[in-house]
Amino acid sequence: MAWPVEPDSVLSSAQLVSEWDESGEGEKEIRDTLNTLTIDEGRAVVMARPDEFQRVFGAEGKSLDWETEPWYGTKYLVERFDEDFTSKVRTNSVRCAAASESF
Amino acid sequence: MVSVQTIMSFHAIEVSFPLSYQPARWKYKPGNFLSHFVGHEGPGSLHSYLKQKGWLTSLSSGPQNLAREFAMFKATLHLTQEGFCKPLTTLPLGGIWYNVPSQRTTVKSSSPSISTCRSSDLQSSPPGIRRNSASLTRQGSDLPRNSARKIMQSGCQNTWRGLLNPIQS
Asked: Which sequence spans correspond to the domains of chain A?
C-alpha cells in the first residue's frame, strides 16, 4: 500500500483532513512544515523568452552568459541569490511594506 | 535562481521548497493546508496583491509528491510583462510565507475561521451529502458549493491579514 494508514482509512485518508485538537499536534505539524519553507532552502525558476531576459537582466551590448542543457538544448542560467536579497527576505522588510497597503 | 529560456511567449516564476513526504502526514495534510492559503485569490491574498499591482495573471500552488519520501511545495506565478521586470520584488513576496513562522503569527488565528465555517456549513448541507467534520478537501467541488465558497472566502482573508500583521499575543 502506498499510504501508511489503517485498512479502514484506505479510501478516506487521501481525501479527509482531521480537525486540530487540543493537543496542538495538527498545528505543530503545519508550523513545522511552514518552518521548512525558507529562502535558504527554496529554489526559484524564472521562465521567459530570451529577449525578455536580455531586456530585464542584460547589460547593454552584452549578452547573458547562458549554458545549454544536454537533452533539449534549452538555454539556462543558474545564480545564487545575493546576500542582500536573502537577508531582506529573512527580515521581512518587504512584507512589512506590503502590510500597509490595502489589497 | 534558475533562469530558463522559453519558446512560448510567457513570463513565469516557479518557487519550490523541499517538503516532507506527505502521505505520512495524511491526517493533517500540511502541504494542502498551506497551498490553500498561498493559492487563495480572495481579498487580502497574495494573488490579490500581485494582481492589483498589475504583475500577475495567475497563481497556483500545491504540494507535489516526487518520489517516495520526497516531495516539493511549489508555487507557480504567471506574470505580466511588467511583473517580469520586477522579479526581485515579486520573489520577496514569496518571502511573505517563507518567514511566517519566525514571526508570531497566524496559522492559529486562521484555523478557527476554517473550522467554524466548515462545521456550520456542513450542518446546513442536505443530509445526503453531509460529511463528518474532517472534510475540507482539495477539490472544492467535493463539498456543497456554497460551503466551499464560504470556506475559501473567509479562511484566507483572515489568514493573509494575519500574515501581514503579526498578532500581538
From this structure: 64-103
- The reply to whether residue A19 touches residue B34, judged by beta carbons under 8 angstroms, is no
Q: Is the pLDDT of residue A48 over 90?
A: yes
Q: What is the model's pLDDT at position B91?
A: 61
Q: Is A74 close to B2, i.e. CB distance below 8 A?
A: no
How far separated are the first and last CA of chain A, in Å rounded?
A: 45
Across the interface, which of A31, A41, A45 has its CB nearest the CB of B17?
A41
Query: pLDDT (tens digit, 9 = 90+) per residue, B127-168?
Result: 333 333 332 333 333 333 444 444 444 444 444 444 444 333
With a CB cutoff of 8 Å and minimum separation 6, the contacts of B56 are B47, B50, B77, B78, B79, B80, B83
For residue B57, give the amino acid letter: T
DSSP B85: T
- By the CB < 8 Å criterion, does B48 face chain A? yes
What average pLDDT score do residues A73-84 get?
Answer: 89
**Domain B1-98 belongs in CATH node 3.40.640.10:** no
| pTM of full prediction above 0.80 | no
Q: Which of residues 82-121 of B touch A (CB under 8 A)?
A: 84-85, 87-89, 91-103, 107-108, 111, 115
